[in-house]
Amino acid sequence: MLTDPLLRLHPRLFALAYRITGSVADAEDSVQDAALAWLQVDPAVVANAEAWLVRTATNAAIDRLRARRRRPYPGPWLPEPAPGETGGDTPELAASLRLAFMLMLERLTPAQRVALLLHDVFDLPHDEVAAILGSSPAAARQHLARARRAIADERPRFAVAPGEEVALMQRFAAAVTRADPVGLVATLAEDVRLVSDGGGKALAARNVIHGATAVTRLLLGLSAKNADADEWRPMLWNDAPAIAIVREGVLDSLWSVDSDGRRITAIYGLRNPEKLTRLRVMPAVP
Question: Does residue 284 belong to any structural domain of this protein?
Fold first, then answer.
């Protein structure tokens, strides 16, 4: 039976492990590793149960992140959709769940990734970050500084109002389902990119597609291939508006976007069935 610190900290541990790994299964396994390790120690000799559990879960998640990166992945990689409770009650936690942010994390070393998440997202002081990384506070600050520099150019310059984001997604989905090239182009930034993840198990572009013309051509082909889909259903993917394509009652693919509030700057398509199996098709988002 789980003891009190595990019950209390489980959501936080999972949220951190998911952001480190980008995988629900790996996050669950990392938290499970921490739980099993905790049950084998005497709590009386642990000065700070939370710090101990965060460090143990973080190290387990880093190991799984490194293992994933050693395995070749066919085509672009996208994070597995997070459970609805993985968000958070702060703007930093909510923003760190978005696909654009999680893809930025992929450019960082494991130490940089953890330093950025622990300090900037989970609001831990430098000395605690250093203890978790097993480094000096000076080294932890250096990891953080390098992480910030690595992603500085790609961080959103301003927040997009949720209503604007949903409205743009609706116009985009309507244009795709109608196979309307004029309406579709009107929703896209000229330098839009499309990232699709089939994991070698479903048809998807093997490279990132760049530019409104190329992206429009691909999406019109997608529209034709999915003309017989049962439903294009609005839902959420990591707290962002998304469209689920449902075929014979089964989730076939999931699509979401990033935007500057006026035009779509990035499109994400998930078709890897292994990353869709845990995601139930939810009721339509109003």
Answer: no
